Amino acid sequence: MEKFPTREEAVEKGSSSFEKKNRAWESAKKKLRILATVGMMSVPWAGWAGLETLKALDCMEPDEYIELVEKDRELNEEEERDLAEKLNYLVDEYDTRVLKILERSSEKAKESKEGEAPEIEGFEIFGISNKDLGDLWNEENYPKGTLKGNIEKIKFVVASEKISSYGYYHGEAEAAGKAESSTNELTLMGSSETLEESEKKIKGNLDWHFSHELGHLNDWDAAQNLSLEERAEFLYEVTQALNKPDSFRDALGYLDSFKGSGAGFKYKKTSEYWGILCEYYFTFPEILAEHAKEYTLVEKWIKRMDKDFDPVKARDRRKETLKEL
Ligand SMILES: [Zn+2]
Q1: CB of 100 within 8 A of CB of 61?
Q2: What pTM was computed for the model?
Q3: CA 80–ligand 1 middle distance (angstroms)
């Protein structure tokens, strides 16, 4: 995309916009490091529904998947070959159970309710009105289709969970939020002993954490408004983006703190990768824009029902609203 040069292109041109982006990146890294050092930072994570389901699910072969896709739309030979290639890639990367996850998501989405804004509850513990949060978490500030009819509930609960207790994650961070694709609920968390600290944490990191979890609830598994064909394409593209040698990494090394092997681990890492891409797209759009491929990938899927959405303007609007909370 012309609009977003890669780091190399920008350096080559010696453009001042690169200098500006670079400064934004350095200052964001500094901010994140400070939050981590003073213990105010905890890291968002996705619910493990996908992974648990993966363990319990049966297999599904690419041929069977293609047959189901063709119930909705007849594919020509080239399209069928293209889809088969993607499905085989997914089966190689994970295993045949991953196709079953996508089929299950598609079936579940057919039952979803239309167009309702999410319920918001539990934030009054910090003196923040749940109603006021509706001014922050709405489809002016996030792309159309990502909240209404897609997220059922946004809530705060008093809870403390070490991310490492769920496996794969090798770090000290506590979970600050979770996204549950089975219920389409987005939860932000803080522990009762440290509620005062949680208050700072919640307010200080609200935009960052919420955007990450919103990403999870808009992935290939949780999003309501995707066809079976699109789900496979979506997961294929995110997996490919993660696998490319110079793929984007978060400033804190969160993604690389996941270590393990096997289909479950890979699936979890890909799912976190998508959460991180959304987190940066919404909260630090200038930084992600330096990575043209990842930026375009997020835009393709997150803006598919709202082509005019502008992440920089939306982030600036949210900043203003947050100041007033
Ligand atoms: Zn996550």
Answers
A1: no
A2: 0.82
A3: 33
